[in-house]
Amino acid sequence: MKNNSTGPLIGILTAQKANGAIAGNGPLFIELQKKLISLNGVSFVFTPEGTTKNFIIGYTFSLDKNRWIKEKFPYPDLVYNRIPFRKSEQNEPFQALISRLKEKHIPFFNPCFIDKYELYELLKNHTVLQHFLPQTILVQRKKDLFTFLKKHTTIYLKPRQSAKGKGIFRLRLMSPSEIQLEAVEYSESYKSFDHFWGNWNEKLLEKNYLAQEEINSAEYEGNRFDFRILAHAEDNGYKLTGVGIRQAQEQGITTHIPTGGRLLPYELLQSTEHDQFIQTIVPFVGEALSEQFGFFGEFSIDAGVSKAGQYYIYEANSKPMSFDETEIEERKIVQLCRLFLQLTGNQL
């Protein structure tokens, strides 16, 4: 297949499900294939388990037949990491593949998932980005968590390694003793912090939770909102690809669409201050991630603004979910293919 194209051969790395099926964002992979073919390139999807020393068994999407076809491929010119499971990046086949790519001098990007606390520590030491962080601590000791809760009265509890708002709770100090725990689908009250800790300490410690102060977020029509920012590497820097607004609805825990959040167009709330904040943080976050973990070709940022006008960075994500905004998804395809060609010495 490579002999029939003048552009690059791009390998899209994903993972196997427990039943052996190929996981990943199929619609994204198909759109990338369509765009690459228009640029005289070609892509295939593969897993670490499908690799050997000299070739790879993978799947390419045939536009003529409108289906995936299993093929034997040479090693690609570039690998785009879209592994969807954190545990898959910790197993031996993935580690062996990364070593082989380095030996063969094959560029790859998005080297790993991002640990939320490692991100906080990284940005806390950045001269510009440190000003946009909510106060955060690791949940390690009962006394420290209680002190943190008394200071802020309302805090978020988040697993260090999770996505899509999974496992997030809000903890409120309702009175000198009463504690209220709120999740997306339920809430519970505890007569004291000791009572809460007795019920939750095992889970919080086992899942490596962190605690983060609640920000008194700006609202639109009575509900808080935040920004979803998508960025890609381009010309030795990082450029903004798109911004969406996500708004909390009935449950105020998260603004994620899968948990009931609402999508709003950025233009509805756009301002010079919002634009300036976003344009400021994108290149700094991209550079910090790449310096710390290895080259990031794309990432997304969850950010927000308080009622007082203070901006905050909540999270950065190495495997951005699909944006519900069609125009942002379309720009993502263009930016990714531009990056594929740039990193393989081709021109768009």
Write the layout of secondary structure elements.
Blueprint: E1 9-13, H1 26-38, E2 42-46, E3 56-62, E4 67-73, E5 78-81, H2 92-103, E6 108-109, H3 116-124, E7 136-138, H4 142-152, E8 154-159, E9 169-173, E10 179-182, E11 187-190, H5 193-206, E12 209-213, E13 219-220, E14 223-234, E15 237-247, E16 262-265, H6 266-269, H7 272-293, E17 298-305, E18 311-317, H8 326-343
Parallel strand pairs: 1-2, 1-5, 5-6
Antiparallel strand pairs: 3-4, 7-12, 8-9, 8-12, 9-10, 10-11, 13-14, 14-15, 14-17, 15-16, 17-18
Helix pairs in contact: 1-8
Protein name: YheC/YheD family protein
Pfam family, one: ATPgrasp_YheCD
Shape label: globular
- In quaternary terms, these chains amount to single chain
- Low-confidence sequence ranges: none
CATH class of the largest domain: Alpha Beta
Proportion of residues in β-strands: 25-35%
Our count of helices gives 8
Q: Determine the fraction of residues in helical runs and give it as a percent range.
A: 25-40%
- Do you know the CATH topology of the largest domain? D-amino Acid Aminotransferase, Chain A, domain 1
Q: How far apart are the termini?
A: 20 Å
Q: Work out the number of β strands.
A: 18
The named CATH superfamily of the largest domain = ATP-grasp fold, B domain
Radius of gyration: 22 Å
Biggest sheet record: 6 strands, antiparallel
The CATH architecture of the largest domain can be given as 2-Layer Sandwich
Number of domains: 3
How confident overall, as mean pLDDT? 91
What strand line-up does the widest sheet have? 7-12-8-9-10-11
- What letter string, H or E per element, gives the SSE order? EHEEEEHEHEHEEEEHEEEEEHHEEH
Structural class: alpha+beta
Protein name: YheC/YheD family protein
Organism: Neobacillus novalis
